[in-house]
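Worked problem 6 (solution included).
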Amino acid sequence: MALRVCLACVLAAGIFAAGYLFRDREAGSRPAFHDMRVNHIPDLVSLVDHDDPAVRSLAERLGTPEAAYAHIRDRIRYEPMVPGSSPGEILRAGAASCLGKATLLCSIYRAMGIPASDVRLIVGNITVQDRLIDHVWLDLEYKGVCLQQDPSGALGIFEFGQFRGLEFTRRFVQEENFCFNDEGFAVISQLNRFRNGM
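Solution. The predicted structure is:
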């Protein structure tokens, strides 16, 4: 367990560096090695907040997971360098990174009554223009089907149920690192990739 937590802390330190790295930096300056921010597990878990009044209100107004997904995909601008923040702040700003859009969508799903066991954020690496970058997407169990969802727009504009099972992972993902929601955090074993023939 201690090894798993230690490994998780090391992984968390490197994830989301792009968004957090530039939070206090002036435009045009180059980041230095020591500018990296460490994101502790409780900080990540706390980003999913289904009790936020703005999240609850939006969830009630949207009514369905399909409408929530379309709203976050289409109405929250994708801005990769925006630092992670609370769902309420994201709604006020109208812009978020892949992390922000995914945590906001997860928060809305949870406010709609989807149990934590059925929705989680996956953090991993994808290849974009021959570069390996960090990315966040969701796994959602919905009406007996496992869906992988990416509301960010970073890789394209996708539909609510476009990626069933592991289709998103097989198409875009180089490595899955960890997953989380408001109730927990787990390091993803790469043995899962071998078992699933990826």
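Discussion: The chain has one domain: 2-195.
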